[in-house]
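TASK: fixed-backbone design
INPUT:
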């Protein structure tokens, strides 16, 4: 059914990253991989985007080390409670609290920072395939 696949919208990833340079680089890379990418500088900004587009967002990629009421682990926890259909990928160093992250995203912090583009792309493809979504 190639025509049916062609009609499916590209999977959407919301990138939540405070560092504008890092956010733009990773967002551009993901767009080059064929994903629709939305960008937010903070968890609060991500919440505003989710208020409007939650049903169309497949994955939220966020920095696990970000702090605040709706940043890092707190953002992942809120996403799990509010939007359980959205997969969460937390990016962080291997030394981060993996046990805490495992409860919030699949298999703990899923990608290392600094971002390794191929590792990130592989992780997103795995999540999409696990839920039966393409790309």
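OUTPUT:
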């Amino acid at each position: 059914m190639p025509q049916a696949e062609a009609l499916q919208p590209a999977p959407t990833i919301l990138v939540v990253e405070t560092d504008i340079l890092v956010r733009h680089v990773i967002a551009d890379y993901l767009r080059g991989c064929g994903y629709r990418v939305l960008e937010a500088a903070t968890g609060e900004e991500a919440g505003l985007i989710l208020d409007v587009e939650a049903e169309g967002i497949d994955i939220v990629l966020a920095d696990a080390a970000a702090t605040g009421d709706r940043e890092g682990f707190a953002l992942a926890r809120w996403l799990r409670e509010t939007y359980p259909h959205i997969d969460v990928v937390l990016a962080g160093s291997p030394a981060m609290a993996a046990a805490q992250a495992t409860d919030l995203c699949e298999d703990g912090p899923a990608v290392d920072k600094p971002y390794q583009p191929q590792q990130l792309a592989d992780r997103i493809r795995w999540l999409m395939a696990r839920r039966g979504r393409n790309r």
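COMMENT: The beta strands are 12-16, 36-40, 59-63, 87-92, 111-112.
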